[in-house]
């Protein structure tokens, strides 16, 4: 299993030889609507679309996960799997092989089993996706949820090898956590007992502006979270990647009993 963090919530995963581009935002600014005065994020320079992508996986329909300018630079023949909202956007951009998954649904693509899990709430009785992936050859498993909203029904029959989720909470005054790390991540670790936990939703090279960004507050840090895992009696190791750093995790030791 090879993992490359592309900053923010963008990832490149290689599982059993399949290259999966996840929630890509690589070019242009990020805004929610045309409101740069409220929130704007951008990279110091555009990044190239990784080559030889076999599958695009989208967790949410929001632009920090389904980013139209980035997807517009991808080959429209690449298969896409996403939440219902993300799949609708992918189709509107001209992707020809799009599969929408609702929480609880499974899909096997090539040699990867993909289970959609209940993710972030986006309205009354509306949720986006987390994902539990398993390589059918190596049997290695990876769980991903980018905002820290974990399916209460999610249980693993065996140890999950890698969890990618926020480990530190980001809060706003009066609203509380908008990205849930901390306690939510620790509870998840106790349920899934992963070998590794890797943070996402970070800002390695990103530049932020706008009124909203002045209110962001981080609660905790990765060293504190590693200590909490140890206090809980877990052997889980926290790994932190730099932007565009790749980490190879050999499935053989991951699967040792």
From TrEMBL:
UniProt cross-references to InterPro entries, sorted A to Z: RibonucZ/Hydroxyglut_hydro
Pfam family, one: Lactamase_B_3
Provenance organism: Candidatus Synechococcus calcipolaris G9
Name of the protein this chain belongs to: MBL fold metallo-hydrolase
Domain of life: Bacteria
């Amino acid at each position: 299993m090879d993992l490359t963090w592309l900053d923010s919530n963008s990832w490149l995963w290689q599982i059993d030889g399949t290259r999966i581009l996840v929630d890509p935002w690589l070019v242009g600014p990020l805004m929610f609507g045309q409101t740069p005065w409220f929130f704007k994020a951008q990279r110091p320079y555009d990044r190239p679309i990784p080559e030889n992508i076999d599958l695009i996986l989208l967790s949410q329909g929001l632009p920090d996960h389904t980013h139209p300018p980035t997807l517009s630079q991808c080959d429209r023949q690449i298969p896409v799997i996403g939440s219902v909202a993300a799949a609708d956007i992918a189709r509107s951009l001209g992707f020809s092989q799009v599969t929408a998954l609702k929480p609880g649904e499974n899909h096997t693509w090539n040699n990867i089993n993909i289970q959609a899990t209940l993710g972030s709430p986006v309205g009354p009785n509306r949720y986006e996706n987390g994902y539990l992936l398993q390589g059918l050859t190596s049997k290695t498993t990876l769980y991903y949820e980018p905002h820290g909203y974990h399916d209460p029904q999610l249980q693993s029959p065996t140890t999950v090898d890698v969890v990618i989720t926020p480990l530190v909470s980001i809060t706003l005054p009066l609203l509380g956590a908008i990205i849930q790390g901390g306690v939510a991540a620790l509870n998840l670790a106790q349920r899934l007992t992963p070998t590794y936990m890797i943070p996402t939703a970070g800002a390695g090279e990103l530049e932020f502006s706008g009124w909203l960004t002045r209110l962001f507050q981080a609660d905790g840090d990765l060293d504190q979270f590693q200590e909490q895992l140890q206090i809980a009696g877990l052997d889980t190791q926290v790994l932190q990647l730099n932007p565009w750093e790749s980490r190879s995790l050999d499935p053989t030791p991951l699967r040792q009993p």
